[in-house]
Amino acid sequence: MYSDALGTAAAAHHASHRELTRHESTGRGPWLRLLSQALELAGPDAEFLRHSECPWSSATFSGTRHRILVAFNGEHALSSGEAYIAALPEHEFSISRQIVADATVVEVEHAVLPAPRMTVEAELLLLDDC
Fold first, then answer.
1. What is the dihedral of CA 81, 73, 7, 66, to 10 degrees?
2. Which helix (H) or strand (E) holds 107?
3. Which residues of 81-105 are buried (b: 16+ CB within 10 A; e: fewer)?
4. Is the bond preceding residue 89 a cis peptide, omega within 30 degrees?
5. Distance CA 17, CA 36 (A)
6. How much of the chain is in helix, strand and coil states, percent to nearest 5?
């Protein structure tokens, strides 16, 4: 039963990634490209839970701040979660007319029961590249 749940979660992740990639080409905004690339970095063991976006600006820059929450379920997935945490801050995102100025892991939660689980919340600052 546990392996069935993992298989279902992996299939759902791949389906949502395909859907995000399809929408990228329709010009629905940089948030979709950012989310798609973040989920690709997280890998197939990641379960997408939530994305939020809010406007951001300073005296010289404007853009958006994004929060992405993903979960890693099961022993094997925990190592994928650790790799995601390590890779995210230095990852080079490729989003036209946008710059990811900051990518930070802001919260990590671990649970061991009923099964090993780690949730990772990341915050990314996306600036308009003029």
1. -60
2. strand 98-111
3. beebbeebeebebebeebebeebee
4. no
5. 6
6. 40, 40, 20
Residue 123: Cβ within 10 Å count? 15
In the chain, count of helices (H) and strands (E)? 3, 4
Tokens of 58: 């300073």
Q: For residue 97, which amino acid is it?
A: R
The pTM of this model reads 0.78
Where are the alpha helices (H) located in 1-130, listed in sequence order? Answer: 2-24, 30-42, 75-87
Locus of tokens 């989920």: 39
| pLDDT tens, residue by residue, 84-117 | 999 999 999 999 999 999 999 999 999 999 999 9
How far is C-alpha 46 from the chain's CA centre?
Answer: 9
CA-based torsion, 24, 45, 115, 121: positive or negative: negative
Which 8-state DSSP code applies to residue 63? E
